[in-house]
Design a protein that fits this description.
Blueprint (H helix, E strand, L loop, with lengths): L13 H10 L7 E2 L13 E6 H7 L9 E3 L3 E6 L14 E3 L3 E2 L7 E4 L10 H12 L12
């Protein structure tokens, strides 16, 4: 049974307060990379950011490329949500949950659009290409310490 405040108005629940807080857009709030018109993101969206010089080297190594955004310093690859599960993306790559671009004054420009109706670059080939270019051993190939 829900409790009512003395004024007869129900107090806000924790879920409601969290949702309202997340919905606020203030100056300095990170921007989210958009899904292009006509596309859907049934698996949600995260992004992997790499320095622009590295992005140019990654592109030809991928069998399929989804939507890629770029600003002057980084390329942002759209991947399905939770593509960081059990993976440590190699530095200098940065994983951005929710495809949020932290610290950006404006959104990066779309430089490559997926051929299909979903914006995703397959995360495993992207991860392996980045591991190869950064001379990093993939997570699953590392020795387990006792």
């Amino acid at each position: 049974m829900a409790m009512r405040a003395a004024s007869g108005v129900r107090p806000l629940g924790l879920d409601t307060m969290v949702r309202l807080q997340r919905g606020r857009h203030t100056v300095g709030t990170p921007l989210r990379l958009p899904v292009p018109d006509g596309m859907t993101a049934p698996l949600g969206c995260d992004a992997v950011a790499v320095p622009a010089r590295l992005g140019q080297q990654v592109l030809p190594r991928l069998p399929r490329v989804g939507c890629v955004y770029a600003d002057g310093t980084h390329w942002w690859w759209i991947v399905p949500s939770d593509s960081d599960y059990a993976l440590e993306w190699p530095a200098p790559a940065r994983y951005a949950t929710g495809a949020v671009v932290p610290g950006a004054a404006e959104l990066p420009a779309l430089i490559h659009r997926s051929d299909g109706t979903v914006p995703y670059t397959p995360p495993i080939p992207l991860y392996l290409a980045l591991c190869r270019l950064t001379n990093t051993t993939p997570t699953w190939s590392r020795a387990v310490s006792a």
